[in-house]
């Protein structure tokens, strides 16, 4: 079974600085997708960024980028120029590209605090 | 706004009771997923329906059941409720059933409190 591990329950970063959230996963599949979701205090789940495992190039969305290391099964999220609105719980997630279903497997989350 | 609606937003009920959570997917989406977010277990996949048929089951208790209706809305039924069932229940929808980088759009969730 696939698992997703986020080893940092909480992190803090100064506003305008850069922060990296870590994520590792375990799978025997060769084709899959990885995601970072943001859950602000409103509890809404918001997709931040996604990565297809067959793509070597790291995904980037404005201030958000990932460092995808397939061999190491590592998928970290870098947030540049942190803003107060980035304060939220961040979930790393995995989805198979070969299974009949496409359920998402989530990590336990990292709570990110932005210090003004 | 993801386009996925869930009702009710909050639900408070007693142990042993039965409740129904409702989800309306985005227009055009055929797949509906239910997830449970609790302090103990984190975010867990419960069940998926695609165009009215059950597609996948996760860690869903036997006391829980779901269905997807011809108009594609879905209901999650929770019975014989226990304190540990208190959680945030999310519904998500997507256009596809499997494969592809289709995004799952999450609803705002239903907060269930069992007292």
- Unreliable residue runs of chain A: none
Class computed from helices, strands and strand pairing of chain B: mainly beta
Tell me about the biggest sheet of chain B?
Answer: 7 strands, mixed
Class of secondary structure makeup of chain A: mainly beta
Main interface: chain pair and counts: A-B, 23 and 29 residues
Which geometry of chain B do the CA atoms define?
A: globular
In what range is the share of β-strand residues of chain B?
A: over 45%
Largest sheet of chain A: 6 strands, mixed
The string of secondary-structure elements of chain B, in order, is EEEEEEEEEEE
Extended strand count of chain B: 11
Cα gyration radius of chain A (Å) = 14 Å
Average pLDDT taken over every residue of chain A: 95
Shape of chain A: globular
Number of H/I helices of chain B:
0
Segments of chain B where pLDDT lies below 50 for 5+ residues?
Answer: none
Helix content of chain A: under 10%
Tell me about this structure.
Chain A has no helices and twelve strands. Chain A is mostly beta strands. In chain A, the strands form three sheets. In chain A, strands 2, 5, 6, 10, 11 and 12 form a six-stranded mixed β-sheet that branches. In chain A, strands 3-9-8-7 form a four-stranded antiparallel β-sheet, with no helix packed on it. A two-stranded antiparallel sheet of chain A has the order 1-4. The model of chain A has no long low-confidence stretch (mean pLDDT 95). Chain B has 115 residues and is mainly β. Helix content of chain B is 0%, strand content 52%. Chain B has strands at 5-7, 10-13, 19-24, 31-38, 42-50, 53-57, 64-68, 74-78, 87-94, 105-106, 110-114. In chain B, strands 2, 4, 5, 6, 9, 10 and 11 form a seven-stranded mixed β-sheet that branches. In chain B, a hairpin with a 3-residue loop joins strand 4 (31-38) and strand 5 (42-50). The model of chain B has no long low-confidence stretch (mean pLDDT 94). The A-B interface holds A 33, 42-47, 50, 52, 91, 97-109 and B 2, 31, 33, 35, 42-45, 48, 55-56, 58, 88, 90, 92, 94, 96-104, 106, 108-109, 111.
């Amino acid at each position: 079974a696939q698992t997703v591990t986020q080893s940092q329950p909480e992190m803090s970063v100064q506003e305008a600085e850069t922060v990296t959230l870590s994520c590792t996963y375990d799978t025997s599949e060769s084709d899959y997708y990885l995601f970072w979701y943001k859950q602000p205090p409103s509890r809404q789940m918001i997709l931040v960024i996604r990565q297809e495992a067959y793509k070597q190039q790291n995904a980037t969305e404005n201030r958000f980028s990932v460092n995808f290391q397939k061999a190491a099964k590592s998928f970290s999220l870098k947030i540049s120029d942190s803003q107060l609105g980035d304060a939220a719980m961040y979930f790393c997630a995995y989805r198979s590209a070969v299974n009949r279903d496409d359920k998402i497997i989530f990590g336990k989350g990292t709570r990110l605090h932005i210090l003004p | 706004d993801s386009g996925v609606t869930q009702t009710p937003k909050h639900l408070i009920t007693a142990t042993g009771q039965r409740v129904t959570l409702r989800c309306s997917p985005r227009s055009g989406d055929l797949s509906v997923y239910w997830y449970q977010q609790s302090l103990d277990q984190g975010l867990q996949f419960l069940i998926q329906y695609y165009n009215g048929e059950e597609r996948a089951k996760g860690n869903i208790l036997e006391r829980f059941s779901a269905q997807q209706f011809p108009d594609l809305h879905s209901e999650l039924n929770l019975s014989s409720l226990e304190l540990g069932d208190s959680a945030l229940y999310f519904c998500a929808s997507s256009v596809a059933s499997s494969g592809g980088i289709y995004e799952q759009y999450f609803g705002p969730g239903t907060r269930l409190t069992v007292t």
